[in-house]
Amino acid sequence: MILNNILKQEAINLKLFKEKHIEKLEKIIIKKKDKYFVNCLVRNKEIQISSPTKTNPEEIIRQLYILKLHHDYKYPLKNMNLEVDVKMGSSSKKADIIIYDNPDKKDKENITLIIEIKKPKEDLIEGIDQLESYIQALPTYLGIWTDGNEENIRYRNPNNDYKFERFKKVPKYNETIEDILTTYLKKSDLIDITDLRSTVYMLEQRVLSNDGVNAFDEIFKLIFAKLFDEHNNKKQNDELDFQVKIGSNIIDDIEVLFTKAKNKWKDVFKDKDEIELSEETLISVISELQEYKVFETDFEILDTAFEHMISGDSKGEKGQYFTPRPIIDIIVQMMNPDEDEKILDPSAGSAGFLLHSFQHMLNNEKIEERDKYRYAINKLFALDFDPRTVKIAKALMVIAGDGASNCMQSNSLDLRTWDKSQKGKYNGALESRFKNNSFDIVMTNPPFAGKVNKSSGYLGYYNLARDAKQKTKTEQSRDILFIERDLKFLVPGGRMAIVLPQGRFNNASDKSLREYILKECRILGVIGLHTNSFKPHTTPKTSILIIQKWDKEKCPKVDDYQIFFATNEIPVKNSSGQYIGRNTTETLNKTDLPQIADAFSEFITKEKISFSGK
Length: 614
Hints:
Elements: H1 2-7, H2 19-27, E1 29-32, E2 35-39, E3 46-50, H3 57-71, E4 80-88, E5 91-100, E6 111-117, H4 124-137, E7 142-146, E8 151-157, E9 163-166, H5 177-181, E10 191-192, H6 196-207, H7 215-231, H8 250-264, H9 279-289, E11 292-293, H10 299-311, H11 325-335, E12 343-345, H12 352-363, H13 372-379, E13 380-384, H14 387-401, E14 407-409, H15 428-433, E15 439-444, E16 451-453, E17 475-477, H16 478-489, E18 490-501, H17 511-520, E19 521-528, E20 542-549, E21 564-567, H18 584-589, H19 593-606
Parallel strand pairs: 6-7, 10-11, 12-13, 12-15, 13-14, 15-18, 19-21
Antiparallel strand pairs: 1-2, 2-3, 4-5, 5-6, 7-8, 8-9, 16-17, 18-20, 19-20
Helix pairs in contact: 2-3, 6-10, 7-8, 10-14, 11-12, 11-19, 12-14
């Protein structure tokens, strides 16, 4: 299909358009020798869309959107003009589509809508900046940015100092701005999020940057307020509170929602936490988020947005917290958790291993939908030192199954927290929930950077921090300590997958570490990951180590056994650190990791490992 070649994707996958739109456009495409043209619906002339050397995907999106405007929103074709000059200071630019109220008076005073068209996956912020400059220059009040997957409707609000905010929906023909403003969103009106990361990035750059607040904290508070609004026994036809309403005090309304969210999820926020945004900023942020469904949304979409928020991509900080989701997914497949097994990530970040385990259970019908809350509360556990990542983990676990109470902030390396004799450090509430020798599975990607010094007060608890004379060393690498710590969490026969620097497997200086691992457990497999895996944040070569703790029944000790080895040669990311697919499934299907997981499954079945065939 020529449309697919021009767009470099399946046209039917464009989220805004129906099959009838695609079919209608295909009928007006004309081939002349080696070139393709479309008979423009508005200009009534042939427009070239493809040649051997050039394609025009924006024209395809424009023609499809004209069909949508005409068939879905009922705008007459005669009310439209294309490539309209917009005076911008001393120069002028061309607006892609302008719709007029009166087809006989196509002047600035009669403009209803201005539409900016981009090809799929174009930069959202740049496109909206361009659209808003057109709206302001004309001037008019309403415009639409679209790339075929999303409609972002911009409203120049005269009741908010003519500041721009997101409008709820595209008005249909003969429907006014006032009609939309006075029609409020119900739960049934909410739409699925397709790219929350871009929306968050835009809020950071265009809205929150001038308000003197911590963008992460404020967006996070609002997401929880929205979660509560969607989750609080709302029926499909109930009007939502998380939205901009004419004549209401939005600061008071949203603060009430946030207070209720704090009371419901007490361990996520402090009592003194309040929303710190000005009214005009709050209106802008709420207008961007109000139409989206957060509860029951694809974890991956939320996770990608949260990863951006915490890693500070826009500020050039290092994103050291998040394991690539396709790699998490493949580790979960290889570990193959069962519904009666307790899972822990002691350096959890945003709890990616737990979320993918949760999804694995549902996808493989190991738990039923009705049992997902019970499962999340009883079987999924997370620890992390960073309070921000713990907040994200709690949010995602709330969305997954209300298992937020099992995500706690703690330095899991500090064994004084588990030592009752350490009165100033012991935490009974944490120790009772995260007992040593109580977890069936540990999956984790501990931080590699930095060392723990003797002055920390807990280095002496670790065998791997002692020299040949059994004296405590002055320091030890953090990831080495995590191996010993995580093994303490496991029940006998429990299994662990841990991401480690490649050097731990072959450095001469790490011989004692390898001997310790062999003494404590059986090595099941080592999978070398491609060097692109953690780009753009870091580039060291890493491997996945899969081990099982010795046990008389589940893993009887033997001296000679087979080990599974594999190397990931087709990376999940390109050299720039971008995923090679649009989502986890598509990314994995383009790599060799599924084949490696299948081979590992065959290996543990052949070796009669205790968790094979579950």
